[in-house]
Each structure stands twice: as C-alpha cells, then as structure tokens.
Amino acid sequence: MNIRRVSGNPNGENGRTVRIGRRDNGVEDHVVSMQIVQDIYNEITGKTESLSRSYNYGFKISFENLDQLNFKMKQLLEQYNVVSSNCCVYVYHVNESKAEFSSFDRFKLYDKTIASPCEMVVVKYNFLIVLPQISKPQSYKVTIRLGSNVAALHRIQGASGGIDTLMRMVLSRPANISIEYIDYTVARNIHHTIEDWLKGISYKTSRGIIDKFQDISHLAPKITRVLSLLVFSAFIFVYLDNIIASDGSTQQDLYFALVATGICGFGISFLFYTLGQYIEKGIDSVSEGSFIDLNAGDDKLYKEHLKMNKKGYLKVVFGSVATVVLGIVSSLVASYLIS
Question: What's the pTM value of the predicted model, to 2 decimals?
C-alpha cells in the first residue's frame, strides 16, 4: 500500500489530505483527510505530539493583559466544536507561596494587596475538540509560562548576593508556550494566537546592548588589569632607564628605584582591578527583562528596579571615568618621580 500526501483537497480542508492505494494493479486511490490519519496514529500509539517554544521578549504584564489573552483564546475556540474546556491559573511569589485558581473568573478575585512580588504566572488550558471528520473528541493541553526576570533576580541576589552568567542565561527566556496536540493545524492556530498576543505586549523582542555587554562583563576586571600592566610597563621603562642612565646614580638609588617600582606596580594593579570589578557589578545590576504587575509587591519592586538600574548605569560611568583618571594620575606621578 502506498500513502502519498497531496496538495489538493476536494473537501476544502486546506489541502491537508493523503492518497491511499496501489497504482500498479489499477486499484483506485482513496483520498483521506490528514485529520483522520492523525487520529488513527493517536489511536494506535496512544501518543500526542508536542509543540514548545521559549522567548526572550521583554514585557510588563498586567491583569488586563492576561484578561486579553483569555478573551483571544475564547475567540479562537469559537471556530471549533468544543465539547469541554477549562482554564487554570497559578501565581508563584518570591516568598515561595503559590496561589491556584480553577478558572479565570476565580483568578479575577486575586488579592492585589499581597506584598510578595510575583515571580511567575502559569496559565493552563485544556480542550476537548471534535473536528469535522472525526467523531471522537481530541484532547489539547496548552501551557503558557510567563516569568518575571526582575523578581527572580531580586530573589537570587538577596539569597546569594550576586548572580552568575549561567543563571542569567537561564532567566533570559522568561516566556514559554507549550502545546500537546493531536491535529497540527489546531495546535498551529493556538500557538499563532498566543504568540501574536505576546508580541503585542512586548517592548523588547531582541537582545539589547545591555544584554550583550552582560555576556562579557566578567572581562572588565581583566581588561583593566591589562591597562594597569601597560601603565606599569611604561613606568618601569622610563623610570628605571632614567636611573640607570644617570651618571650620579648609586646602588642605593637603584634599590630605591626597585622598591618604588614594586610598590607602584602593586598599587596600580590593585586599583585598576578594583575598578574593573566595580564596572562589572554595575553592568550586571542593570536589567531590562520581563516584569509582572499584579499586586502591591510588584509595584514596589518595579520602583526599586528602576532605582537599581540608575545606580548600575552610574557605576559603569563612574568606573570608566575613574579608570581613565587613574591612568592619567599614574603618568603624572611617574613624571614627578623621574623629575
């Protein structure tokens, strides 16, 4: 038996059909809808397919945004014969507490006076849909995870005092859409609806300059240390060469020059490295990620987040300026000692 997928479909099912039959013995092909083929596959294997995608979009989600998502999902389902459906909402807070709601209407009663910020919101939909050429209801499970990078970073920094590059990469994709399905066309329509909603509320759909600098922020201390070596090397070359070339220099002058060179080298290296760490912390403290705004704790955290970003930018500017100034001062000190 030969099974071939064809683009034409006399029943108007968007070209999703296959032909089943043998041509070598003159037996006529039978045109079968892909809906039936996928249903047969599910009946035989008992398996469902899955579609999952994560996003690095930056967003600020409010209750109105989630209400709009629920409305879009209801509109989408109007084109299908839905036998049964339900929606569950889970809200996870920074203090590790969780609020569960068995329906979106119950979620509307969420206590907005809670002081603990929201770290993640998970919205789950379960549908039983009867497709036109299938008599048996098919199950579809949709899970939408929306995380707050701001709240997660706040919790991690409060617990460990800092955040490494690996953890920042894990938190760089705050949104995830996961769909378990039988018919791909239905899953694709659901995914497109949710993705379109997510793009509509996002203010950043690609990696910004800050994200790229944070990937290499750990190099800041190394870069400033290299600068200190360059300054120190210039100091040694000029200062010691001047001492050695001097006709009136004594052995005591040479010892003094070596000690002064060592002290200056250590001091310059330490100061430049400290400034590099200061710049690194300033870059890492800036965050332009996702945010959830559902309760009083979220509003307070968002204001703190804006202040932290401002301090981070000031640290970067101050550290960079201080590094340049330190290089100039080191040159002046070297000139003074030489003279």
Answer: 0.66
